[in-house]
Amino acid sequence: MKIVTFNVNGLRQRVSQFGSLLKLLNSFDADIICFQETKLRRQELTADLAMADGYESFFSCTRTSEKGRTGYSGVATFCRVNSAFSSAEPTLPVAAEEGFTGLVNNSKNGKDDTTVISQGLEEFDKDELLKIDGEGRCIITDHGHFVLFNIYGPRADSADSERIQFKAMFFKILQKRWESLLHHGRRIFVVGDLNIAPTALDRCDPGPDFEKNEFRRWFRSMLMESGGPFFDVFRAKHPDRRDAYTCWPSNTGAEQFNYGTRIDHILCAGPCLHENHNPQGHSFITCHVKECDILTEYKRWQPGNTIRWKGGWGVKLEGSDHAPVYTSLAETPDILPHSTPSLSSRYLPMIHGFQQTLVSVLMKRQAATQVQSYRIESSFSDEKVTINTCSESMKRSFDISSTPCSATSDLCPMIEDSDGVILRRDDSTDKTASRSMIMSQIEHINSMPTEKTKKKARKSQLSQLSLTSFFQKGPKLGNDVANGEADMSNSNDQSSNTNSQVEKSPGHYELNSSAGSQDRDEVNDGPKEKEKNSIALMEWQRIQQLMQNTIPLCKGHKEPCVSRIVKKPGPTFGHRFYVCARAEGPASNPEANCGFFRWASSKSRNK
Q1: Positions of the chain with pLDDT lower than 70, given as ranges
Q2: Is 557 in the active site?
Q3: Which of 322, 444, 557, 575 is catalytic?
Q4: Which of 20, 61, 123, 423 is least surrounded by CB atoms within 10 angstroms?
């Protein structure tokens, strides 16, 4: 069994990058795939993001309405299975839970029947638990042999006391849930982006206060070497590996020099699966974990783009800023037959309900087609043909009389379509020919675009107009002259002298002269337009040169800096500054960012 954890930095973007969800999942060749930071709200879950052939999926989305947190975070677990029903595969969960407090609604029908606080969390306030689970940071799947926690840990800046408190409470409650499961003899796997680098070995250029961080101390207290229950699976397999990072700041190009941190983890706790053995020397990691590593070669960006950082802060890097981490397990036997839990995406109203709605739409469309199809009811006694359509504007009744149309034109039925074509009954034809002619004409009417379609077409045509088209002379005047000539020639067929007078009238020559001058103006506009474009280009180049002269050079490489704007709230919010344009890297590397910094204005410098 292969388990992969990956912070996708937006599931929709990764699916679009790979072409489909199925291609994204198959690229890992794994049995259980855990995504973090999906950035999807519950109402945004659609089949193309949640359903893939051969996989069962389980989502947890943010539920908070707090400003800046909507559509943020989110986790998803995809399990590769042969069957979602009556399956003995351990990859198919026997149970699933959104969040880890037990208070999030996990029922299939949307009824609040699972709002029972999870065992071991009774000491916490209910509102406090709901707040912790409100950001969609955990999905739990029970695979029989072990319970899998897919976690996206909160991030907290050192100056944000509110988020620090939230993060501390998050891991405190999570630890209580782990302890409760371990107390009942369950094995636990914890995978995901925990936003914690446990030791200095897991961070590039750690500062002097690195080890003093409270969350690092908590993380290390949970590990086996500190008396805790968990193994850090990667460090258990690679205890001395350096420069093994899973995350790099994308806005600084730090990946170019591998200037990152290891914050994506796989932890495991609990006994091995062997029965009737001496516990000495046996553990889950020694008996069942074959390997664990970072997929640094995994193509997280568009295939073919090998260089991700080209210099400059304005460059937007494709793909995630994290690397996937995987582990392979051995000797995981089948479990009792079971079916997919009700939390599966296949049962979500926005997925299951959408498919039902699609069926109803198709049924409505079929019914509408039947209504629109004409119905001809013929009565040979009075020879009346009635044609019904769904549109009131298309309802007509036709009297097919034996009286010749030439004798009684007022009584002769007529059909006029949108093109002004008049259909009259010819008494030389029989009733069958008349009905077939009417039927073919109705088919022509039904096939013609509606007024709404014509309006959309006209709107589309108008939207194609360019700005310069409003300043060009239109051909209306020339068309009017031509139309006038045709009308006058047709209306004066009785006298050829009149035609000649019209052709030789002074007004005619004046109009032709105007049309000719219009053509000359259009010819002359070409050089003028080129001259204007050339002037504009020269002016823009002058402005760019002026801006280039004001941009400082970094001291380390004597290269033009790039400007950035402070986005963090504070006294310098919105102010511009200059920094070295090169990618961030170790201070010992002369090719990396030299650390140059300068405010763009003296006002910012004073602050």
Answers
A1: 65-71, 105-115, 275-281, 299-318, 353-526, 544-549, 602-607
A2: no
A3: 322
A4: 123
